[in-house]
Amino acid sequence: MPDPSYVGRSLSPAEPYQVSREKIREFASAIGEDSRICHELDAARAAGHPDLVAPPTFAVTFTMPLIETFLRDPDFGWDYSRMVHGDQSITLHRPIRGGDELVTTIHVENLTTRAGSHMLTLRCEVADVVGEPVATTKALLVTQATS
Amino acid sequence: MPAWSAIAKGDELPPLELRLTRADLVRYAGASGDFNPIHWSDRTAAAVGLPGVIAHGMLTMALAGRLVTRWVGDPAAVRSYAVRFTRPVVVPDDDAGALLELSGKVGDVREAEPDSCRVATIDITARFAGKTVLGRAAAEVVLPE
Q: Domain FAS1-like dehydratase: where (chain A) (predicted)?
């Protein structure tokens, strides 16, 4: 049974995640995104960006592992093995780019139990190292309640 | 390329058909760091009651996003993107893989700050085996001048 006292809490900010050019290229290739600004530095700079631009869903690659660490913490009491991803939203306050150092803070927004399922909404605020907002992601995660 | 100033509600995006194979799932697992075995192991997928190995929801979301970035010609133009995961995409262990059919249309166009750019909301439909796999899928993109 997940601990409802977590709702409304913010977890400690994670260590900065450094966005590498190679990770952007690898991720873009894995989803078949062939835009030159995701692969070629010259093209990205010609389009006015300081470095390669990450595809829109890239942020989840570093927010999800942080979410997993939280959800596997026995104190919270979440059954990670039976979890499914219900929905996902990503708001980009600016594009994520190579060389960015990004700090993610997880906020536990909501937890409800209905029809034998626990539904958890987590919001991740992603900022640069001086605190300027870069992205906001929100995930609805669902796991079966043990009877 | 569309005449951007004339883009209006109801305009349809060019559709996109993509084939997903097991190799694509393995590649996405590595690139995203999501190594959940339901995305590569038949044994695990069967044990948790799935009809087979399924694509990562986030991979389906990313592929559907390509419909929009291809149309607008710029992955940096996306301001927001949201989906609900309503059905799994089952990916067989063969050369044909799973066919994902993507379509979209302009749901709204508005002027937005700070520089009175035009922002379009694109409503996306993603189908696999004749059924939608994403619900309420929509992206907001800044239109080129």
A: 6-136
- What does the alpha-carbon distance between residue A119 and residue A74 come to, in Å, rounded to a whole number? 17
Q: CA of A89: which chain B residue's CA is closest?
A: B82
Token pair, residue A113, equals: 């139990």
Q: Which residues of A touch B113 (CB under 8 A)?
A: none
Relative to beta strand B131-132, strand B16-20 is: unpaired
Q: How far is CA A19 from CA A98, A102, A103, B119, in A?
A: 5, 8, 11, 27
Residue A101 clears pLDDT 90, i.e. is over it: yes
B134 forms beta bridges with B85
* A125 lies within 8 A of chain B by CB: no
Q: What is the pLDDT of residues B74-125, one digit of tens each?
A: 999 999 999 999 999 999 999 999 999 999 999 999 998 777 799 999 999 9
ipTM of the prediction: 0.96
Contacts of B100 (CB under 8 A, 6+ apart): B17, B18, B19, B20, B60, B63, B64, B89, B126, B127, B128, B133
Architecture field, domain B10-19+56-142: Roll (3.10)
| Chain B residue numbers touching A30 (CB-CB < 8 A) | 24, 27-28, 30-32, 59
Report all structural domains of chain A as residue ranges with CATH numbers, in order of start.
4-19+57-144 (3.10.129.10)
- Enumerate the residues of chain A whose CB falls inside 8 A of the CB of residue B73: 35
- Number of Cβ within 10 Å of residue A57's Cβ equals 26
Amino acid A82 reads R
Q: How far is A7 from chain B (nearest CA, A)?
A: 22
Query: pLDDT tens digits for A7-57?
Result: 999 998 889 999 999 999 999 999 999 999 999 999 999 999 999 999 999
